[in-house]
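Researcher: Good morning. I'm working through a list of sequences from a screen, and I'd like to move beyond sequence-only analysis. For each chain I'm collecting a predicted structure so we can compare shapes side by side. This is the next one on the list. No need for commentary yet; just the structure.
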Amino acid sequence: MFIDYIYLILILTLIGSILFLIYLSYEYRINEGFSSSMYIPDINTDAIYNLSDNISPVNNDYNVFINDINNTIHYKHNMANRQLLENAKTNLVKSKALEDLKIGNDNTLNNNTIFPSNEIIKTIKSRYNSQYLSTFANDREHYGVLVNDKCLTVNGLCKEDFCLLDCQKNLYTSDSQKFTSKRIYSANDAANIMNVPASDISSTNIYPFNIFTSAVNSNCLTINNNGITVEKCNLNNIKQQWAISPDENICVLK
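Model: Good morning. C-alpha cells for this chain:
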C-alpha cells in the first residue's frame, strides 16, 4: 500500500516535469519569433547631413526672392513719392507765375483784365519775349503796327506775304496795313476763333490776352527771336499772345 503511494508521486512528478518542459519550449519559440520580427534599421546620419545641405540653398533662394520683392516695393514707393514732389514743385511754379501775372511787374501793362472802353491800344507787349510794339488806330476797330518807323504790311505792294512799308495816310489807307484786335478771356474763346473743340486748347494758356489778325487774310501777328511775322493763327502759340496798354511806348522794336 505504501509502495503504491510512492509510485503515484513519481508518476505525478514525471508528468509535471514533462508539462514544465513543454511550457519552456513554447515560451522560447514565442520570444525567438518576436525578436526576429522587431528589426530596427541603422540610421544613416550622412543622408540627414545631405538633406540639410540641400535645404540651405533653398532657404537662401527664398530669402533672395523676398528681398527682391521688398526692394521693388520700396523702389516703387520712392518713385511715387518723387513724382508727387515734382508735381508739387511744378504746381508751385505755375502758382507763382499766375501770382506774378496778377500782380504785374510792369505798371504800363498791368491790370489787363478790364481795358478801358473809351481808350485805344497804343502799346502791345509780347507774352513770348516781352518785346514792345507801338500801335496806332485807323479807327476804333483797326490798328496799324509800327516797326522801325514803318508799318507792317500784308500783301499789298509787298514782294512777299508781308513786309515793312511807309505808313499810309488816313485818306488813302488800305486793308494791307490794318489789324483787328480780339480779346481772349478763356479756352472757349480761343476754341471759337480757331474752330476747334475746347479740349484742343492748351491748358498752359494764361488769360486774358489779345491777338491781332490781319484784315487781309485773318492771319495773326506773331513774334519770334528773328522779328515780326504774320502767320496762321494758333492760339496755343504764346508767340501770338499779346498784352495791351492805352499808354504810348517810347521804345519800339528794333
